[in-house]
From TrEMBL:
The chain crosses the membrane at residues 212-235, 247-268, 274-296, 424-447. This is 5-hydroxytryptamine receptor 3A. It is a multi-pass membrane protein. It comes from Rostratula benghalensis. The lineage of its organism: Eukaryota, Metazoa, Chordata, Craniata, Vertebrata. It is found in: Postsynaptic cell membrane. Residues 4-211 form the Neurotransmitter-gated ion-channel ligand-binding domain. InterPro entries: 5HT3_rcpt, 5HT3_rcpt_A, LGIC_TM_5-HT3, Neur_chan_lig-bd, Neur_chan_lig-bd_sf, Neur_channel, Neuro-gated_channel_TM_sf, Neuro_actylchol_rec. Its main location: membrane. NCBIfam families: LIC. The keyword DNA damage does not apply.
Amino acid sequence: PALRRLSHSLLAHYQKDTRPVRDWRTTTTVVIDLMVYAILSVDEKNQVLTTYIWYRQHWTDEFLRWDPERFDNLTQISLPVESIWVPDILINEFVDVGKSPHVPYVYVSHHGEVQNLKPIQVMTACSLDIYNFPFDVQNCSLTFTSWLHHIRDINLSLWRQPELVKFDRSVFMNQGEWELLYVLSSFQEFSVKSSDSYAEMKFYVVIRRRPLFYTVSLLLPSIFLMVMDIVGFYLPPNSGERVSFKITLLLGYSVFLIIVSDTLPATAVGTPLIGIYFVVCMALLVISLTETILIVRLVHKQDLQPHVPQWVKRLLLERATVLLCIRDRDTFSQSRTQSSDISRQVENDSTAKLNQYGCEDTRECETAGGTGHAAASAGQEEGSPLLLGVLREITAIRQFLEKREEFRDVAREWLQVGYVLDVLLFRAYLVAVLAYSVTLGTLWSVWRDA
């Protein structure tokens, strides 16, 4: 048969140990091509990219030519790879041997053109930048070069046009985490310390991560917890529920960070921006809890505190209320007026009770003193101790009520200061959170649309 006769004729005296040229000055040009089939994994910690590519190369073998008319017009034949010379084209970024299938044959045409087509699982070193995670774009290079032969022996060229290689996604499986943007190609010469130059063909595989999964599982829960922290400011500051509520939020956020710690990429080079985002959110929660503790401490245990200083009243109860546009700021002065009215009412009541115990009318006391002075002086010694005791008790009650009303005034003033300070700190906290959110949102939107 023609195949057997042709194979025996080509390989009978073939020497695969030397470069297949009749003149040693002739340069063997290897034409290569690459198509990305799948992105298997991206190991950020070890800086390793694993891809599956379809690799093609062809060259001219001057000792594998024949006349098709002698072999039944046969123009192409497949020969074993181990039986012919194959260029030593390797990838410089190789770090491990992948599980690539072995293709044992190559195609040879009657002009001596050898085509070697094979799929390769490539595990290459790549400088991965995860600062923009999960909106990151990675650019990894695959450098094909001859490990031994310099450019005078083996030269490289591109099979197709660079534009066709750049946007060729005909065989790419794009249902995974990574999306193939484009593949750039460039040729360059490489030399070390004025030695012979080597030909290099670089392919830059540019991929982008799909951020939807990380947005749903990482960003949205954190945003919800921060919104709940802001809503927690509407709890009354004079109740202890706000402190327990914010402590619960802080504990929940800590558990959330423990859960998502395995999802975040870890490298020794840098920290992704989303990690900084989580740390700042935790710091904001701590600041919110600290502010709540200060406000609660301010509005409680006022019995041990002095009166509010005048400069604090002017600064917070007058100017700050106007600046913050607090609607019920007029009630602050009303509450102080009501407290003074209550104090005068208590004083009048105690005076009335004192007159009642002594005598009901002053004129009656004078008439009784004019007509029955002798009888009164006779019973004065017996009534004086009882009357003095009643007066002392009434005086003590009056002093107690006045003291209690004074404590209430102090408590009310400090409570008003606490409310105004709480509104001031809440709005400053809200401005900080909004500025932080707008900055991160702008950065991530720019990176996503870049």
